[in-house]
Structure prediction request, 180 residues.
Amino acid sequence: MRERIDLGPILREAVPTPYCHLVTRPTGATVRGRVEERIDQSPHPTTQLDFSQIGLIDFSCADEVVAKLLLRPPGERPRFVVLVNVSDSHLDAIEQVLETHQLTVMAVPAERATPCILGWRTPDLVTAFEAVNKLGAGDTGRLADLVGWTIERAADALQSLALRGLIQAASGTFRPLPTA
Prediction:
């Protein structure tokens, strides 16, 4: 299950202007605060942040809305964040901020239906992420077989994906985050 939060209406409520751009740190902090409230009220573990109505995002807003949201300590339950409808104009600011903080987030760009990783990543992390999203639910042995890795290497990659909130994992099994 997932909660979808459209950032456009939240931005318009937070800043009473006709603009669709996420700019300035105070604007980003206000939008993040409202997003956090919605996440806290949601019974769903996965939250999709929809960027479809956002024109531009500057570095300070990317830091406030995306990075600080990911840096927020988890509550009593697991929570996952997925960025959807991210355009090329959003990518530069979000990527740079995430890499600076060594953070990673799953994204579904507007131009593609295939999820990808934004931010800090290694080749093994990307390979494992793409395999999990191709395979669906499974276990470490299934991933190891698909990509030709040892069980230990697959387990390390899955653990890293899980710790970064890029997959759901429990008792040696994994599954991709919902995107639809």
User: Anything to note?
Assistant: The domain at 1-120 is CATH 3.30.750 (Transcription Regulator spoIIAA). The chain has a mean pLDDT of 92. The chain has two domains: 1-120, 121-180.
